[in-house]
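Sat 14:20. Reprocessing the chain from the morning session after the first attempt stalled halfway. Input below, unchanged.
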Amino acid sequence: MDAQRIWRAAAISMGIALLLGGGVAGVFRATAAREPAAQHEPVTVQAACPNRGDCGSPLKAGLRITFTGWACTIGFFARDPETRKLFAVTAGHCTSGSGLYAQWSHHGTVIGRAALDAFEDGSTADAGAIELEESAFANVVYASAGSDLRPVEATLPDTSQTIGSEVCRSGGTSGWACGKIVAVDVDTTVAGKHIRHTWWTDFPSASGDSGGTIVDPAGHLLGIVIATTPTQSVYSTVDSVAGELDLAPCVEEACA
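Finished this time. C-alpha cells:
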C-alpha cells in the first residue's frame, strides 16, 4: 500500500459517515456523476413504473421502501439456502431502526417484515433483510427511469472491486449516479458502530438511499449503500452482506 493510499484510508476511516435512513437529519444532495454506456439491453417490465416510490409489482432493486419514520432502498433479493425463504436486502441500520418484525411497505403496500439485522459493532457489513410476503420480484435494478430496468446477472467478488473501477448507485432518494471506487477495505464508523471492510466511491448519497444497489456497467452486483459524506458514498460489498446474513444473492430470475 503506497503512502497516498494509507493517508486516504486513515482520513476517511476516522471520519463518521452519516446514516442514510430517513430517520436521520442532514441530507446531502447527490451531484451529477459520470454515467458509463450501458453494456446490456434494459429489461421490459409490463407493470406501471412511474417512479422509485411507485413501481408496481413485481418488486425491483433500487425501489424506495418505508416504515413509520424511515425510508430506505431495496438493494437486492436473496434466499435462505436452507429454508428457501425470499428476502429483500437493505441496510442493517434500517431494519435495526425499525425493529425486527416491523412491516415495511412500497407505495403503501406491505412487502414483508424486518427479519435479519447485522448492524453490529465489528460487523463486516451494515446489512439487514426483510422477509417478503410474496415471491413476485424481478431480478432487475431500477436505473435512470422506470423504463430503464437493468438485469442483475452475477455478483462480483471483493478482489475484483478495485480502486478506479466504475460503479453506479440506485438510491430511493437521489436516484441513479455513477462514478469510481476511491478506497477499499476501510474500517468505518457509522452512528457509533465500527463497520469493517467498507468500500468508498467518489459520489455522495442522500437520506433514504440506505440499502441502495451498487452495480457495475456490466450488471454485476457489487454491494449496498450504507452511509455518506458530503462528497463520497460508503458501501458494504455483496460478499460481506451475504456472509453476515447467511443468504444467497439472487442472480437469476427464478432465484433457484
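DSSP finds three helices and 19 strands in the chain.
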